[in-house]
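Why Transcriptional regulator, TetR family? Reviewers of the renewal asked for a concrete example.
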Amino acid sequence: MIPPSAHPSPTTAKRERRKEARPGELLEAALELFVEKGFAATRVDEVAARAGVSKGTLFLYFPSKEELFKAVVRENIAGRFAEWALEVDTFEGSTSELLRYCYKVWWERIGRTKASGITKLMLSEAHHFPEITQFYQHEVIRPGQMLIRCILQRGVDRGEFRALDMDYAIYLVLAPMLFLMLWKHSMGACVPDALGLEPEKYIAMQADNILQGLVVRPPSPSSPPG
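Here is what the prediction returned.
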């Protein structure tokens, strides 16, 4: 028989659960504040207060604001590229269907979430913070570009897309994403009903436009002799 003292009390169990939850709560609070206020204006004591812990507790997990920001980026974006790459590798439909699918799930998983505000933050403050800029380029921008390149190269290799200058074609795919993130956290945030923009319809239209330019078309019949 296990002595009563060996069983954790409800208070102890609650404290342990709280301790285990702290990193996630801190990352969630940090994401909210970074998106609301920007990197420079966010203070670590504000993050700790919003998460319901002391500043000292925050520093047990994240030794600086820079490391806290990096953890936020990894949790919400950078840490998911392996999962996304596997989805691309195992997709069974056409590359046109794959591109439409990627736009759709990007909006669902990133675009319409708070994580989309990280891009706006980087565009606004990158030149002031070279360390986090270099980190973001390495952990988000380059993997993102490589993933798009793989999708486009898949289409070319399968004879679905015409030959492309991949260094620039990736920006065709990125442009609608960047627009939506800026709209959501800039003009759309200030005047949310001014344009009546529905992101899902916008993405579908942009996918149509991009694919019209990418897909290989059958040769047109030669003109009859005059």
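DSSP finds eleven helices and no strands in the chain. This is the kind of structural detail the renewal will allow us to pursue systematically.
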